[in-house]
Structures are given as structure tokens and as C-alpha cells.
Amino acid sequence: xxxxxxxxxxxxxxxxxxxxxxxxxxxxxxxxxxxxxxxxxxxxxxxxxxxxxxxxxxxxxxxxxxxxxxxxxxxxxxxxxxxxxxxxxxxxxxxxxxxxxxxxxxxxxxxxxxxxxxxxxxxxxxxxxxxxxxxxxxxxxxxxxxxxxxxxxxxxxxxxxxxxxxxxxxxxxxxxxxxxxxxxxxxxxxxxxxxxx
Length: 197
What we know:
By secondary structure, the protein is α+β, with helices and mostly antiparallel strands. 40% of the residues lie in helices and 12% in strands. It is built from eight helices and six strands, in the order ββαααββααααββα. It has helices at 26-43, 50-54, 63-73, 97-104, 115-127, 132-139, 145-153, 176-181; strands at 5-7, 15-17, 79-84, 87-92, 157-159, 172-174. The strands form three sheets. A two-stranded antiparallel ribbon has the order 1-2. The longest helix has 18 residues, at 26-43. The radius of gyration is 22 Å and the shape is elongated. It starts with a strand and ends in a 16-residue tail after the last helix.
């Protein structure tokens, strides 16, 4: 039995979300909270943060412990619960990528990068916020607006704060989608840059 709502005594038509589930035994309450977290994560196409998940469970519940219990139940499944970009999300294990592509006849062009696109993406990741002049300093030539547009279209970079340079040009920064795509929790997880001597 799942109890997700209680009626307010003052208004029979108004429904209030029951986070605490005090009317359920502890084991059923824990199971309901696990189910709620799974449902929220399943419905989201992007990582969901701890604060958002905490809104669907009781005040005394540990979101991290609930996540650990869900992950334990997923052992041996073709998908996993991964912590990326400051939150959690479901994703298929990489070993099943071939099967998914074959079944769906997918050729994912959105994940294909030219060498220059990857170089610019790395420059933005390591030097953000950075403007086009800063990118030109790194590459020794102008970086085309089209290339930057393709990275923006893939939702890997976005506009950052205005640069302090004359004319206050726009800068570029990476996005949460960038973190999720490259399996990073934060920018601190980027590999160390090797400096040529």
C-alpha cells in the first residue's frame, strides 16, 4: 500500500504531499522512499541533486543511504545509478552500448567531435570563463563562431560572464551536460594538465 497524499481537514479537495509516511511501518516507509527517489530519477533526463531528492522523503531519511540501497539492488542490471554533475541519474552501463545502437539503429552524431571541437572544448573546460580572444591566444588563430555554435548546440558550452577586456565580450563556460557527458562530478575532477617544458 502506497500512501502519497493526505487530505487537509480544512479543505477536502486540497491534497498535501506526505513526505513522512508516519502511518507506514519503517520497512514499508523505507521502500516507499526508495521508490520515490527511483521515480524522480527515472523521470529526469539530467542529474537530480540531493536537495531535490530530499523533498520526496521524510526529514529523518538519509538520501545517500537510500541511494546506496537502490544501487545495491541494481547490481547485475544493465543500468546503474551514477553520481555526476552534482546529482544522480540513471544510465545504461557502457557494456550495453552496442546492443542499444543495434536495436535502435542509432548512429549518434551528436557525440562525434572533430579534433578542433575537442580541443576548443578542453580549452573552455580548463580556462573558463574564456572569450574568443582568449581561445585565439591558445590556438594562435581565430576560433570560428560556427564551431562554438556546434558546441553550444550540443549543450556542452554556454555563455558565461562578460570579459573584463575592452568591449566586454561574451565568455564561454562548460555546462552540467558537459560534466554528465564526461562522467565528472565537478570541474575539479578534470585530469591535471601536463605542462610542456
